[in-house]
């Protein structure tokens, strides 16, 4: 059912989950590749997987944050979410070539947690209003 009552909480949950998967991938992939080098040859070991996650997170987050902020009017949620999206996009586009691995990891983590935090806050504010 696509209405404000059931759709928005689902979008927020998907966006939080995708952001956490992105952060987990960024943190754990180097360890997993050391333990099992074959993982590096799979889609999970390629940079394109990180970019795919970012391109999935962006439309889901924009939609969820826009719909929620239209209801609860808390612009800080939108600012934090879009700041996280820009940070995550920057990390994905600059990648290893400019930021090196540490810089990319830090930007990705910061962006992922900002996005997840904004969606959690969005979810809570919408629940309080009971209109989302």
Annotate the secondary structure layout.
Elements: H1 7-35, H2 47-72, H3 75-129
Helix pairs in contact: 1-2, 1-3, 2-3
Radius of gyration: 16 Å
| Percentage of residues in DSSP E strands | under 5%
**Secondary structure tally, helices:** 3
- The amount of helix comes to over 70%
Q: Tell me how many strands there are.
A: 0
- Briefly note the structural class of the backbone: mainly alpha
The major sheet is characterized as: none
Distance from N terminus to C terminus (CA atoms, Å) equals: 13 Å
Q: What's the mean pLDDT score?
A: 83
Name the poorly predicted regions.
Answer: 1-5
Shape: elongated
- Taken in chain order, the helices and strands follow as HHH
The overall number of domains is 1
What does this structure look like?
With 132 residues, the chain is mostly helical. The protein has one domain (7-129). 83% of the residues lie in helices and 0% in strands. It contains three helices and no strands. It has helices at residues 7-35, 47-72, 75-129. Helix 1 (7-35) crosses helix 3 (75-129) and helix 2 (47-72) crosses helix 3 (75-129).
Give me some keywords for this one.
83% helix; mainly alpha; 132 residues
Concise account of the structure shown:
This protein is mainly alpha-helical and 132 residues long.
């Amino acid at each position: 059912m696509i209405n404000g009552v059931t759709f928005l909480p689902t979008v927020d949950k998907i966006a939080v989950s995708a952001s956490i998967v992105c952060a987990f991938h960024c943190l754990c992939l180097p360890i997993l590749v050391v333990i099992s080098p074959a993982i590096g040859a799979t889609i999970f070991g390629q940079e394109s997987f990180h970019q795919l996650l970012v391109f999935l997170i962006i439309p889901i987050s924009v939609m969820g944050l826009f719909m929620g902020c239209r209801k609860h009017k808390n612009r800080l949620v939108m600012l934090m979410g879009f700041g996280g999206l820009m940070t995550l996009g920057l990390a994905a586009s600059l990648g290893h070539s400019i930021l090196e691995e540490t810089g990319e990891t830090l930007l990705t983590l910061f962006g992922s947690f900002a996005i997840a935090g904004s969606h959690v806050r969005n979810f809570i504010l919408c629940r309080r209003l009971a209109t989302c």
